[in-house]
Amino acid sequence: MDYHESTIASAMDATETVPVQDSPVFSYISKLSPIQPVKEPAVSQGFTRLNSPPTVFTSPRLNPHGLSSSLKSSQFPPLPSTQLSGQDGGCWISITAADRSGKLDDGLGSGLNTCTEKGLDSSRLVDDQTESSIGCADRFLDDAVYMDSFNSNVSADSSLKYFDDIDQTPVRVNNSKESAGKLEKTHGARGNNKDASVDRRAIEINMMSRDGVIRADQGAKFESNLSENLAITNKHPEKFMTENSEAGQTGHVDDSSYLLPKSIEIYEGNKSSVETTGALDEPVQNEVQSNPMAAQPRGLHVSCLHFEDAQQKIITNRHAQNPSGIENSSRILTSSADREGPKSISLETPSTPISQIGMTQQMVYPRNRGNYSIKVPTPLGIGLHLNSVVSTTQVGAGETIIVKSSEKDTLSIWDEQQVTSLSSHLSENSKNSSYLSVLESILGIPDDSRHNNDYASVAANSATSVSTYNVKPLDNSMVCNPIEDQSTPVNKRKSNTGNADDAEEFKRSSPKRKRQAYKKKTSESNDDYSCKLCNCKKSKCLKLYCDCFAAGIYCAEPCSCQGCFNRPEYEDTVLETRQQIGSRNPLAFAPKIVQNNEDETQLSKSSIRHKRGCNCKKSMCLKKYCECYQAKVGCSDGCRCEGCKNVYGQKGECGVNKDVGMQCTDETTDGSSGEKLEMVESGNVLYHTELCNPHNLTPLTPSFQYSDQGKGASKAWFSSGKYFQSPESGPTFGAPCVRFPRSPRNLDNRDMISESSKEILDLDSFDNELDYHKAEAVNDFSFGHHGPSNMEHLAGKPNAREWESNLKVQPFSGSGHFSSASSLRWRVSPITPMAQFSGTKLPQAVDYYNDLHNIMEDDTPEILKGTPNPPNTVKVRSPNKKRVSPPHGHLRELGSRSSEGLRSARKFILQAVPSFPPLTPCVESKNGGQKKT
DNA sequence: GAGTTTGAAACT
DNA sequence: CAGTTTCAAACTC
Questions:
Q1: Which regions are flagged for Basic residues bias (predicted)?
Q2: Are residues A799 and A870 located together in one domain of the fold?
Q3: Where is the domain boundary, A539, A555, A580?
Q4: Which residue ranges have CB below 7 A from strand C?
Q5: pLDDT one-digit tens code per residue, A258-279
């Protein structure tokens, strides 16, 4: 696999290391964390009461534990990171990155991350809290574009040291040339990690890694790899160890230019100590070698964060590269990596901030509406803020921190004074209040704007605060302009690290109040797709009645559900239930909002419809009772509504080609099923797009065609959180929200598709995206066949022009993954800023692909593996029937067009592919459907 | 905050 | 597959 070959070139040159420790920034950072990174168990306890978002395995909501801890920690800044680790086992992660030139790339707060590992026996309360946090994180991740990439171009040496022991031995992930390709296993494998916490940690790590990532476009790989590695390690420590030890030295130092995380330190408790040093890639590579797809799934959700990070990094880098004078970029919040090298700035801050960082990012993750390329989700907080702040430090004279507002992509330079002020504030306030408050104060954010009373405000606020403010650059004066609160629902759900008072207030608030606040905030922020909150009383949150469950996320603390089983601790139950439901209705967890476009040029709001349509009788589709209305999409012919007056489009007004469009078609592919699938054979490619996360609808632009050639379905994230999904598989989407836990047990879990079925598309944002990608043919999104050329694609024969136009995409092709068994094609509009995609989207797509690939490898019969892609693209039509029939009908059609063998294979695939929403933000490739074919 | 309405999901 | 029941969100008061 090229992937194997591709290695992360450590951009760091030890010799070039900047004496960070001596730098003002370092001092600043040191000041930031009042708490010494003592590893002590306590995290869970302290946070137990905190309301945190539910944890979802990976998606919309990050691992509860990690995030929760973060949130909690944020709420309790004073708590030392060590405390966090405690019984539950906390982990403290720091990442340091530097470019070869010795420049430190910093992401504030990036280096700090606290994750709490929830004990298996942790009380539910604790779980809830942690879950919430995690959930948020997951969500955040989902939004983020999947960064994992196979970009062979990016290579870096990395060494990963993993310490997992009761003593909270720090785990370090080092990425350095010297250590490149070397993986040491210093300690025995830890085999006791089987709980969800593992994933969480992985997530946390990923998040951290994100910060560590320097270059968005290239760093992605590193991050992804790192994430994957970490994830793998967490999940399968023993495997990780083995693989690493066995893995050859693949580390290559290719692009020195790429900034790479230099070191990541993780402190974890309650685990047998394990230290592994080696190329970060290796673990993944190993897995890939044995099973190319293996590594992918694990890191999926994590990757989301990467994207955002990458973007931030890009901005930062640009700025740094900018003659403006800021040449040395250093991370403000980097871990104590100094140990590893002079370049790294260690910022040992309280675990709280770290956690928050993770949280913040998720929370703040912006919905890319406009400029896709630059828009970066805003990191938040000092934990959050710092994170959100991408800073470049001018080591030397005065410390200059470049603060970027994710929202406006503006960079601000904090001069020494400002930094000092910030540091001072942090030092002074960290003990009593959240960093957020401090930042807010520093930033001059009005008090009334600082903390919202609502649920989200507590935690999310902090996130929002910084990110929400647009900092004006270069004037040395921080000008913070309140920006629309973009905190994501997830954020909202998560308690933020706001000041202690807020936390207390939040804790005291009744669930209902929280809920209301959350909803209010959600509605205000227009985060329709935000994490769901439920109030289930009888369904145990294990039925689709439950919004959370339906959305593929765990219930969060804000939920008012009773007897809830939709929690990480009941993962097995949840998965089982989901599988049951999925078996009954494969599309049950599929996004409900589908974009149908036959005509590339007509990608528009009109093409977005509710997959199944509504059945309103009295609401006239003017109230949220109507799913179409709720999703802010027009009703389609598929709706059975009466007296439709949907303001977004009435029934019969199908905006898109009615003749072809699925939304207007009542045909039922499967007679038995309500789901309508349309096969598109025409040159027009039907792209079945589930736009789960309108806000995140990012660029549709990078469309890719994927031909699994029988090897697997492909999932692609075109944009953060956005997926395209095959009708069968349903979910694609990139919901910012969660995901269900992937079952550690089987591959199927990987296929779980995050569902944002309830996510609402933001038409406006969608349009923006469209504009952004206008050049891009919509058709490309479809995996269907476009004719001979398409067939070529399917055959794995690259379209030179396409690839050329999208150099950034090429890495994929370059990676053996696509070249061999399958071809994944991205079609990017020439005009599309590649920066957007570089290292980010594609990687995600790749990851997804890999994931699928793994699945196929593992589960797919040989016969299927060789199966060429079906010539037809499957399109989902909004079913007229409530119940969606399984794709069988679809398959049948496909099958009719294909050999019997294929047919059987398809069926097999369907079975193999869980209907669950992916744990990670991934797009379920149409191939999934095609595979079936 | 309680009660009602609504329509999806689940069940038969 | 249609009809009914269950359920929880949305809505109203």
A1: 509-520
A2: yes
A3: A580
A4: A 519, 533-541, 543, 545-547, 561, 623-625, 630, 668, 671-674, 881, 885
A5: 333 333 333 333 333 333 333 3
Pair A426, A527 in one domain:
no
Is residue A902 domain-resident? yes
> Is residue A667 domain-shared with residue A739, that is, in the same domain?
yes
Residue–nucleotide distance: A581 CA to B10 C1' (Å): 10
- The distance in angstroms from the start CA to the end CA of chain A is 26
Name the token pair of A189.
């494998």
Which nucleotide shows the minimum CA-to-C1' distance to residue A624?
C10
| Token representation of residue A823 | 């071809």
Who contacts A746 (Cβ-Cβ below 8 Å, separation ≥6)? none
Q: CA–C1' distance A199–C1 (Å)?
A: 43
A70: its two tokens: 């973060």
Distance A142 CA to B3 C1' (A): 38
Of the listed ranges A155-159, A380-384, A579-583, A756-760, the least confidently predicted one is: A380-384
Residues A206 and A283 in one domain: yes
Range of the domain at A367: 2-47+75-128+150-500
For chain A, give the number of residues: 933
Q: Which helix (H) or strand (E) holds A208?
A: helix A196-212
CA of A545 to C1' of B3 (A): 20
Write out the two tokens for A697: 């609808």
Which 8-state DSSP code applies to residue A228? H
State the sign of the Cα–Cα–Cα–Cα dihedral A553, A559, A561, A562. Answer: positive
Residues A565, A661, single domain; the answer is no
CA torsion A593→A596→A600→A602, rounded to 10°? Answer: -80
The pLDDT of residue A653: 67
Q: Does the residue A770 lie in any domain?
A: yes
- State the nucleotide closest to A539 in CA–C1' terms: C7
Q: Alpha helices, DSSP H only, in A697-809?
A: 748-751, 763-772, 788-795, 800-805
Say whether both A492 and A527 belong to one domain: no
Protein-covered nucleotides of chain C (CB closer than 7 Å) are 1-2, 6-11
Estimate in Å the CA A615 to C1' C12 gap, whole number: 22
Query: Is A142 part of any domain?
Result: no
Tokens of A801: 């022009």
**Is A261 in the same domain as A116?**
yes
Answer with the one of A500, A534, A551 that is the final residue of a domain: A500
What is the SS3 assignment for A437? Answer: helix
Q: How many C-beta atoms surround the C-beta of residue A142 within 10 A?
A: 50
- Supply the pLDDT for residue A516: 57
A625 C-beta less than 7 Å away from strand B = yes
Same domain? For A248 and A199 the reply is: yes
What is the token pair recorded at A27? 């001092």
In Å, how far are A35, A168, A272, A447, A885 from A83, measured between CA atoms? 10, 10, 18, 30, 50
Q: How far apart are CA A185 and CA A188, in angstroms?
A: 7
CA of A546 to C1' of B7 (A): 14
Residue A548 approaches strand B within 7 Å at CB: no
Is A680 within 8 Å of A873 (Cβ atoms)?
yes
Task: Give residue A883's pLDDT band: very low, low, confident or very high (50, 70, 90).
Answer: very low
Given this model, what pLDDT does residue A647 score? 87
A136 belongs to a structural domain: no
User: A875 pairs with which residues across the strands?
Assistant: A678
Structural domains in chain A (count): 3
The torsion of the CA quartet A595, A598, A604, A606, rounded to 10 degrees, works out to -70
Q: Copy the structure tokens of residue A911.
A: 């079975």
Confirm whether any atom of chain B, the nucleic acid strand, is less than 7 Å from CB of A618. yes
Mean residue pLDDT of chain A comes to 42
Report in angstroms the alpha-carbon separations of A826 from A347, A771, A780, A817, A874.
40, 18, 8, 14, 19
Segment A774-809, tens digit of pLDDT: 333 333 333 333 333 333 333 333 333 333 333 333
Burial of A475 from C-beta contacts in 10 A (0-12 / 13-18 / 19+): exposed
